[in-house]
Every structure is written in structure tokens, then in C-alpha cells.
Amino acid sequence: MNKAVIGVAAILVVVAGAVGFWLGHQGDASKSSAAPAASVAAAAPAVAVEAVQVNRLAMPQGITAVGSLRSDESITLRPEVAGRISAIQFREGERVAKGAPLVKLDPSVTRAELQQAQANMTLAKAKYDRAIDLQGKGFISGQAKDEAENNLKVAEASLALAQAKLAKLSIEAPFSGIIGLRSVSVGDYVKEGADMVNLEAIDPLKVDFRVPEIYLSQIHVGQSLQMSLDAVPGKTYEGKVFAINPNQDTTLRPGMFARVRLLTRDAQEALVVPEQAIVPQGDEWFVYRIIDGKAQRARVEIGQRRGGKAEVLKGLRDGDIVITAGQLKIRDGVPVQVAAVQSAPAAPPNADAGVIAAPSAPPAPPKGDAVPAAPAKADAAAPVPKS
Fold first, then answer.
1. Residue 298: which of 284, 310, 288 has the closest Cα?
2. Is 257 part of any domain?
3. pLDDT at res. 15
4. pTM for the predicted model, two decimal places
5. Do both 94 and 162 map to the same domain?
């Protein structure tokens, strides 16, 4: 009995030893296989990416708006007295000087009234002079002298009225400008206040534009602005709030569609990166910096965007190298190989201003490990009450 037990125990010991030898062999094999895998991973080639160096650029803050050009002065010429047009003394579309005669009404009736008034005044003046002489000799009373003086004043007023009516028959330009298209012809009979032709002063010009009420506290008299027009591409005009600098040519005309960029803050140095370097994820924005040959993800805060550049408020330092292409192939800490590092180019001097406030939250990334590229730049302007 005891011998049988001892035999069974010996067999169990032999079996346990075999199992332990087998497990130990397997462990050594796994260790030996893991070591080459680690060495292979360490020797894996770096991911090729493109990068750019973060630098500082002047990015003045502004507000984008749209508006319409308006004449500095604009009137429609209308006669103050009724009459028949005897002469039109201008050509449509030409520039006229202040005081230039434009339209003349028939003066025959008014001239006759003027002659009558002159004759009445001459008679009244003679009676008044005679009354003064007789009153000095005591032949007439003071009342008779006062009546003669009053008649003289009435005659003088009638003469002045006739002269004013005659003067109003010749309509002159009240200011220098460009004459428009007339709506009357020679021989037309016009009444008081009838439209005849418009006159526009376009040097300087005014631009009527509207900005959101949220920017009301940032606007003040004398503030600088820049204006570009679709009708005159490639040219920018300078101006100030309520006063536009004079322009010497006639390429600007009232009614043209204008794009206005109101400068609310002087140019300040700001950290900028190309928009393609920004990687949105949820409600946050990231960029990949290159540190010691590896990609390091950094959370950033974005300010205004303009000319393909994005202002970085927080998260980067001057001189950092950020990846601009290849973000979809890398993760945080992955070795990278930079094809070329370039300094961020300067923004165009007259680039349209983008959204001034921080950009809205980007769309949620798609399922999986891939991270979507940065959204395209979008300009915005909202019309509100006139500033």
C-alpha cells in the first residue's frame, strides 16, 4: 500500500517537472520573440510630414461690413416759380462748376412786371422828395409826408419782388458736381417744384454702411477705414468715419457696391499659423508641434482668421514648429520626419478681414482614429442700424 502511494507521488513529481520545464521554455521563447519585435518597432521609419515655423505678424482687428457709396451732396433741381423753359445750358453727364447757369425760363412776363415796379418806385420817390420839401416850408402836414414815405417803401418792396422773380428764372448750380439726366426739354412749361435734373457732388464721396450693434462701443468719430469695390478690383480706398478722404478721379460713382473694413484696433504682433495646421476635435482645436523629432499635440485657442492665417491666442510660443500636412497619419509622440520647414509667409496687405470673434465650434470628428482637417475659412458681415 505504501509502495503504491510512493509510486504515484513520484509520477506526479515527474509530470509537474515536465510541465514546469515546458512553461519555462514557452516563457523564454516569448521573451526572445518580444525583444526582436521591440527592436523592430524602435527601428520603424519616421512618418513624413510638412511643418512651418510659428512667427509673429501684425494683425489689426477690424469689422467687415458692406455698404453703398453716396454723393457728398445730391439734389434734384426744381424751379421756384412757374414758367416755360427757354434754354437748357448744360450737357447731360458733364461736370459743372458752382454758379454755372443750367436752365433758363422765359423772362418776358417777369421783365414787364419789373419795369412796372421800377416806374412805380420812380414816381413814389419823386412824391416823397416833393413831400419833404413842402413839409419843410409848412405847406403840408406831417401825416401827408408820412404817407408819401410809406408809398415809397411799398414801391421799393414791389421792385425787389420783381427783381427776385426775374433772378429765379435762371437756375444755377448750387455747388460743383456732375449733372445727371434731364427730364425736361426746351419749350416745356414747368410748375413750381417740378423735377428737372439731378446734380451730384462726388468728390469726396461718402459710404453708407451698417455694422452689428455689438461693435457700437468700438466705433468713434474719425476712425480709419479701408474700402474696396467689386467694380474697381485690386484697389483699396482709405477713409474715416463721417469724412472720406478726397479722391482725384471719377472712377467712384454713387450707388456702387462697396466692401468696408472698419479698423477697430491698431496693428499688433500676433502669433499666426496656417489654417491647415489646425486640427479640430469636438469643441477644441489642436496643432501638432515637433519636439525632439516627435509629434506633440498641443491644445490652442484661435482668434481671428484672415488671408489663410489663424491667430493663436494660447498654446504656442514664438518659434515653435507646427505640422501643416500629414496630421491624419500621426499620433501624439510618433516620430516624424520633416520634409521642409518654412517660415509662415506674411498676410496680404489688403486681405479681407475674417470673423473677428473666436470661430464657432468645429464639427465632431468622424468615427475611428482619423482626425478631420481644419474647416475652410469663412468671411461674415451682418447689416444692422446705420452707424
1. 288
2. yes
3. 42
4. 0.49
5. yes
